[in-house]
Amino acid sequence: MDPGRKRKIRLVVALGVAVLLAGALVYTSFSASSEAKEPSQLVGVSSGGSYELTGKVVKGSVRHEGEGIRFRVADRDDASQSIPVTYTGTIPDPFRGGREIVLSGTVENGTFVGERDTLVTKCPSKFTTSGDG
Amino acid sequence: MASLGSVFLALAFLTAIFAAIAALTATGDVEERLVEISRRAVYGLCALLTLCVALIEVAFARDDFSFNIVQQHSSIETPTFYKLAAMWSSQEGSLLLWAWVLSIAASLALYATRGKLREIVPWATAVMAAIAAFFTGLMLFAGGVNPFATLDPAPADGIGLNPLLQHPSMMIHPPMLYSGYVAFTIPFAFAVGALITRRLDAAWIRSTRRFALIAWAFLGLGLLLGARWSYTELGWGGYWAWDPVENAALMPWLMGTAFLHSIMVQEKRGMLKVWNACLIVATFSLALLGTFLVRSGVLQSIHAFGDSTVGPYILGLIGVVLIGSTALIVSRLDDLRSQKRIDSLASRESVFLVNNFLLVALCAAIFWGTFFPLISELFTGDKASLAAPWFDRYTTPLAIVLVLFTGIGPLLAWRRISWDAAKRVFLAPAVVAAVVAIGLALLTDAAGKPWALALFAFAAFSLTGLAQEFWRGAAARRSLSGGSMPAALVAVVSRNRRRYGGYIVHAGVAVLLIGIAASSSFQTNRDVQLRPGESTVVDGRTIAYERPTVGVDSNAFTFGAVLGVEQGGKRFLLRPSRRFFRPTGVETGTIGSFFDGEATSEVGLKAGAGSDLWIAVQPDISAVRRRIRAADADFRACIRGAPGTPSQCRAVARLMQAAAANPRLRPVASAQIDTLQAATAERLAKSYLADDAPATFRVIVNPLVTWIWIGGLIALAGALIAIWPGRGARRRPAPDSELEALKEAKYREIRDAELDHAAGKLSDEDFAILDAELRKEAVEILDRVRVP
């Protein structure tokens, strides 16, 4: 086989592998992802489904309950829309009322049940000019 | 002082613009003077920005709260070390840092290339100056990011630094990352210059290789520090979460790795020029993207710091860089295509090409996963995100193959390797890998984790191969010039720093990946609730909760535990705790306000070569908090003068009323309240000790984690060796023309071939053929040198 043909075959193989990888990537990402939802989008949603809840913890709503905690999460920009949350697992250091969180889980009868150890609390903003710091 | 700073900053901006314009007029066939003027302008820019940084640091050191930046990020109580480092915890301070480091790097690059690369340097200067102008311009014109903004009247104290950031690693981590991002500007700028002037041989690479390596090292160090900080300081016990901002630093590092390897092929064989141009553009764009991601609210991340004014501008710069560079590369494609072709699959060149593909694939997978929320929003209207398991699924196999290649690459020679030589060279590493695989499968439970087993086997292959390289290289040297083995080893390493430094980096990376594989696949993770006196057993270690601890000082309550651990016959103590800080910037408040500020975890960590024991505590302080709430309520009732309150309270209440009327009494009143409160706070906090309350402990046993840090340090040491310039005795004057540089490179190739042959990588016939080819090429170059 002359070198030119060998090179062409190598190129085709490489591109084929790349296309396969890209295809696998794209396919699995859409099925493995969880939609990010704010509390206002979860109101009235039926039980089941997996989501990623984002929003602000309502101040004063955090209660310890057995091994876990209960609290309410409201929309970032609209405090009137909130949803109750239960969660067991690691609680990050910055977690408190007023902080923004990201939590994976499902909805059960109007309450968001967080998946174990998936609570992420955003580090308080270093860059805002105002806010609770 | 602040206005002086603003003046310097404005001057810096103008100087950057001037440098860019001067450089642009210096392109083409014009006099040397203009090139020198633009270079001096960059030196001037560096001086001005240094003055700006100095002014800010002095303001921090002197607690000058008229500076907005000082007021927002420091306070009188902040320790001096953190005061000086607080500059880059702010948006405007980090922009200033970016511009300053860029000006230093650009000055060094221009100093090193003065009198050389005559056509490329002006264009490179223009690019570097333009980017510096962009960042200084951002500070001056985008809203709210001027480091010299002032407050009038100047407040008496500042907000202080977030206690989560008061850790040495956290202070060094940002400057390391920034230096890494910024240093990639230099090879990028020279690449643009090379493309514009069509001087596409390896000259631009030779001049900027060290900057690329330094950038890579800084970025790597920044990543390592971030991971270590996360592990030792945060309460979750992990070191990497595939968070968007972590990925944003990893991606340019991966592309930088590909670039550093790929340029070797261009230097040695003049191939992969298109790859190199694309790789440096990708690396630099990803570095800018990393800078952008931290400053915008675009992706949900633990680090994303909300909306900012600066984000869209950086995105604009990235767009300009990408579109401009792509257009430039496409228009120069003909000049970039090389004449030569890869001779054989079993050669270093082809391994490097596969390496490029692997790293690009890894980077692409991480990129897709990081930006998936935006991608899915485009297609489905919903922001959906991918979690760590998805990333692990794609990065694990790629990382395993890459570890294999860190071993294969060094074992191969340039151009070709015969099968006999291959058998000789691959035998020992392959045998060791097989032994390790079988041994681990039989003796440990590694068989249950095939990915980890594969990684251990391939890492063993790589480390054996690298050790073999060192051995054979030393033996080859010894056979040439005698002496002992250790001396020969030192000699061969110091005469081939790039090669052996690179091998050390590979070894470090293999060790680091071993640590990652072991600690992620074989971790034991338990949450257990214990009362004082109780104990539990985790993974063969008996952990007894001996007693609770309490600490009180003016800014924080500390609730913790003393744990007695018995492990393999040895006993030691661990003291995890949680600290609750008062919010910064508040002068006085209720005792309950201690729970309104930050909380940090002090982790109890016993590191070891075999495994780490990591324990964090979540004490149940609900009883203490109830008592504190009651005490605060009592105090409030007391100073309102409710009936039945003790006389001290009434005295304080009278003092407070007087202070409300007469401001000069306020400090006295505050001091009185503070004293009263402090005694009460201490008493209430210490009541936790008698509570016999349960505490929840997270216990993690992490095998081989320490080797992650060790591996990282080995890799950095290797990078340092590779960066280090040759010693004086061997240093020849820097080549003053392209042809001279070509000649040097060809001599290096001949020497490398001799070393490869002596180390057994090339058979005698292959070496004879290669040596003849190389010498013929050398003669051609010498002819061109003699007949200009």
Report on the structure:
The complex is a heterodimer of chains A (133) and B (788). The model of chain A is unreliable at 126-133 (pLDDT under 50). With 133 residues, chain A is of the alpha+beta class. Chain A is built from two helices and eight strands, in the order αβαβββββββ. The longest helix of chain A is centred in the N-terminal third of the chain and has 30 residues, at 3-32. With 788 residues, chain B is of the alpha+beta class. Chain B is 65% helix and 9% strand. Chain B has 25 helices and eleven strands. Chain B has helices spanning 2-25, 32-61, 68-73, 80-85, 91-112, 120-141, 168-183, 185-197, 203-233, 244-269, 273-294, 311-331, 333-336, 348-380, 388-411, 419-443, 450-481, 485-495, 497-521, 622-639, 647-661, 666-691, 706-723, 738-758, 764-786; strands at residues 384-385, 524-530, 535-538, 541-552, 556-567, 570-574, 577-581, 599-602, 604-606, 611-619, 695-703. In chain B, the strands form two sheets. In chain B, strands 3, 4, 5, 6, 7 and 8 form a six-stranded antiparallel sheet that branches. In chain B, strands 2-11-10-9 form a four-stranded antiparallel sheet, covered by helices on one side. In chain B, helix 10 packs antiparallel against helix 14. Chain B starts with a helix and ends with a helix. Residues 728-732 of chain B have low confidence and may be disordered. The chains are: A alpha+beta (133), B alpha+beta (788). At the A-B interface, helix 1, strand 1 and strand 8 of A face helix 14, strand 1, helix 15 and strand 8 of B.
